[in-house]
Predict the structure.
Amino acid sequence: MGMVYLFALIVYIAISVGVYKIISKVTKKVWIKRVTIAFFILLPTYDIIISEALLFYYCNFTEKEKIYKVIEHPDSVYFEDAIPILKPASKFDKEFMPKQYLQKKHSLQSLELYNGKNSVLHYNLDEDQNIVVLELEKPIAHYAVYRRVLYKNWFIDKFLHTRNIMIKDIRTNTVVADLTTYNTHYYNILFIRSRDGLANSAGCKGNIFTTARKILNY
């Protein structure tokens, strides 16, 4: 793939130089030549400029964390993902999360995962510390962690990927915390896009997933 990117870059430079030479022969006006140069420089990098400007604004001048309280003993937590769309928990999550949050850390008494419409997988430990799985119609956990992709408008969504975690007390239907983070998409100059159209590594400082775990102590 590296050779493909290099070839594409060489072709782009060759086309840019060719167009500039043609314009130089057609007109002697310096400003037209400068506009041509600026156009070919900015064409593959305009998304970097806009993305970084938006990222700077949202990371520094908008409220990203609303934490109303920290739960020391959550007991049971329900997880629901809509990244990028609402879908049942993956096979990896079904295998990894119960072991991580029940057997290894012992911070939760039970854990629940969304498994489709009217289907929730409920995990808990028996007396021998083995994981037991039940299928329920709806969550019975005390707290819920909703992980979402947020959509603002067509312009911002083109340059930024926005993720949100909302933690709620299911029993009282109150919000415990509302966390948001922003990432840039992969840049055009790389000649690639992320396979799922989601995010590049560049984003706001801090990890909302780590913060969510601290809030619920899991």
